[in-house]
Amino acid sequence: MKTAFLFPGQGSQVVGMGKDVSEAFPAAAAIYAHANEILGYNLSAICFDGPQDRLDTTAISQPAIFVTSAAMLEVLKDRPSMAGSRPDVTAGLSLGEYTALYAAGAISFDSGLRLVAERGRAMQAAADASKGAMVSIIGLDEDAIRKICTDAAQGELLVPANFNCPGQIVVSGSVSACDRAAKLAEERGAMKAVKLAVAGAFHSSMMMPAADALRQALGKADISAPAGTKVIANTNADYYTDRVQITDGLTKQLIEPILWQKCMERLLAEGVESFYEIGPGRVLTGLMRRINRKTKVIDIGTAEALKGL
After folding, report:
1. Could you give the CA distance from residue 81 to residue 89 in angstroms, rounded to a whole number?
2. Partners of 2 in beta bridges
3. What integer best gives the mean pLDDT of the chain?
4. Per-residue DSSP letters for 268-289?
């Protein structure tokens, strides 16, 4: 039976995440302590005790989710039922792709954390320098969404940004264009259109300054080809084979759409049957339910879940 480890992205953060795991498992506490040293501030305190508004900032939430997922992964590897076993493939939603690469041995924890911290800072800076937003549209297909983007843009930026699952597509662009898209989507039969609590127009050309900064950081990082475990890329639903592809994929992530539905459909088509969502929240579990209702995802986001393995 083929196994996939899935890692969540930005938006899954919540105050208290990882606290019970850190208290129950010394291996998880050690990951947080090491992360605090690398970052030079008390990330674990923000994860465990907040405040929520600080945890929600792009510059903090990205390393926080990476570290929390890594801490849970560390414990998972030592559970009796998982000892010695490796996933056949890993995948991560946007930010989660860094955790997927770490889990596959393509980057070290230290390199991954430094890259994620730089990514968060660069995306925050790009967002602060532009007026961008994102809207999640529920209940319309890709053709309808592309038509809304064309009609609502009115000369401004508005593009599809996340193809998450059937009937859930996120658009990204200028604040006013996103507002028009939300109104138009509901007029055209969407179940709902929700403006996301994000800093800017992620996965669009508004993030080009962040992509440039990240490419420089990636060029200096120690990255290797995944060995033994495959990693599927968000931007093309294909597998990474070398360092150049990884650098390109992680850079393009910031300015191109995330094809999560296609990634999951490919894994299912290739015989992956066992899925674990490792990290805070259950976003990816919910998306899989919409992609393939028969597929069960095991959530690994609490000490109780880890003890139950």
Report:
1. 18
2. 272
3. 96
4. HHTTEEEEEEESSSSHHHHHHH
Per-residue confidence (pLDDT) for residue 81, from 0 to 100 = 78
Per-residue confidence at 83, pLDDT binned at 50, 70, 90? low
Copy the structure tokens of residue 169.
Answer: 């597509």
Q: Which whole-number Å values give the CA distances from 216 to 115, 122, 171, 210, 247, in the listed order?
A: 10, 11, 27, 10, 10
Amino acid at 115: L
- Give 104-173 as a DSSP string: TTSB-HHHHHHHHHHHHHHHHHHHHTS-EEEEEEES--HHHHHHHHHHHHTTS-EEEEEEEETTEEEEEE
Q: What is the pLDDT of residue 80?
A: 79
Would the pTM of this model clear 0.90, i.e. be above it?
yes
Is 203 designated active site?
yes
Q: What tens digit of pLDDT does each residue of 85-124 get?
A: 789 999 999 999 999 999 999 999 999 999 999 999 999 9
Residues with Cβ within 8 Å of 38's Cβ and at least 6 positions away in sequence, in order, are 110, 113, 114
Residue 136 bears catalytic tag = no
Which position among 12, 22, 94, 174 bears the catalytic label? 94
What angle do the packed helices 109-128 and 208-220 form, to 10 degrees?
Answer: 160
Residue 302 has a CB neighbour count (10 Å cut-off) of 17
pLDDT for 84: 66
Each residue of 1-24: pLDDT tens digit?
A: 899 999 999 999 999 999 999 999
Q: Which of 61, 136, 203, 204 is catalytic?
A: 203
Exposure string of 200-211, with b = 16+ CB inside 10 Å and e = fewer, is: bbbbbbbbebbb
Token output for 67: 């570290």
* Interatomic CA distance for residues 216 and 212, integer angstroms: 7
